[in-house]
Amino acid sequence: MTAPTVPLGRAARRRWGGLSAAAVLWVVLYQANLALWTWLLGDIAGVDLHTRAGDSVLFFVYDTTKIALLLTGIIFIVTVLRSFMSVERTRALLGGRREGLGNVAASGLGVVTPFCSCSAVPAFIGFVAAGVPLGVTLSFLIASPLVNEVAIVLLFGLFGWQITAIYIGAGLVVATVAGYVLGRLGLERWVEPFVFETRLRGKVIDPSAGLTWDDRLQMGREEVATILRKIWPYLLVGIGLGAVIHGWVPADWFATHANGPLGVPIAVGVGVPLYSNAAGVLPLVEALHAKGMPMGTVLAFMMSVVALSLPEMILLRRVLKPQLIATFVAVVATSIVIIGYGFNLIL
To answer: Which of 26, 103, 123, 163 has its CA 20 to 30 A from that of 64?
Structure first.
């Protein structure tokens, strides 16, 4: 006896209705994330969120939820989209002679996506999995936290349009050039193989094969589950570390020691392990500048904090091998040091 068939119209309504409901739920959770955790921790659990410990706990649960939601949404959408195009075709379209333009476009995309360094990781994973050239994707990973509308507005308010314009130009140059250089090094061998695989019901498939909408949505769900299962320990460790060091920089000590000829590399070296977005680090940047630190050194510190972070490296470790992560950090940090010395010469 065969199972009763569901009429096509009813099946389609069920599919798109369920997908629409999931999308609405995602948006609600993402928008209410901070308010929800502030209410649960502050009002219900009685945690004092104004203390260092309370702020770290709030930072951990809020950021973990935010990045998990971003992973879920971006990986699902990118997987469904890539089911229409093979990895080889995507690389052919975006690579080769167009790769330099791809780096510029990816840097521009980063400007309009106000992610911190860890929040940009889900999009990075999705782009790499879709076959976008690695160097192009790395340009996005650098530009998104480094140059975005939040950083632009806050910088303008604190330092005026000249400093803001120089910072924007320098940030785009760092993202574009560093991504292009990394792309030219042929580092794809240091990306974990599972990122490039397209699977449906546990089997690797060719996305160019005939797939139904149900197949494509199933692929998206399976890819989300696979990525979350592989990355969640790194997610918790990375964000946990970020919560511990969140907001930690002894401003007086830093202003004293990050001066002189080695001030820029010291500032970058201190900034890389820290974890913050532009909004979180700019008050410290203003305080350091007020204490007499050169503008180039201050902006290099800001760039290193928002573009590179130890929690970001921990998250990336699940999809990138240590050799690629080390190369990425070295190229970007060196670029920021050069930019910092350049700022000090002209400002």
So the answer is: 103
Say how many domains are in the chain.
1
Q: Which residue has the tokens 């971006």?
A: 74
Domain range enclosing 240: 19-346
Place of tokens 């240091």: 190
pLDDT in tens, 85-104: 554 554 454 444 456 788 88
**pLDDT at 258 (0 to 100):** 66
**Residue at 172 is within a domain:** yes
CA 72 to each of CA 117, 140, 220, 289: distance values in angstroms, whole numbers, following the listed order: 17, 19, 9, 40
Tell me if 143 sits within 8 A of 99, measured CB to CB: no
pLDDT digits 0-9 by tens, 102-154: 888 888 877 766 566 666 777 777 777 767 788 888 888 888 878 866 677 77
Contact 118, 245 (CB under 8 A): no
Question: Which residues in the chain belong to E strands, given as ranges?
Answer: 199-200, 203-204
Which residues are CB-contacts of 338 (< 8 A; sequence separation ≥ 6)? Answer: none
With respect to residue 3, please indicate whether it lies within any of the assigned structural domains: no
Q: Is the pLDDT score of 286 beyond 80? A: no
Contact 278, 113 (CB under 8 A): no
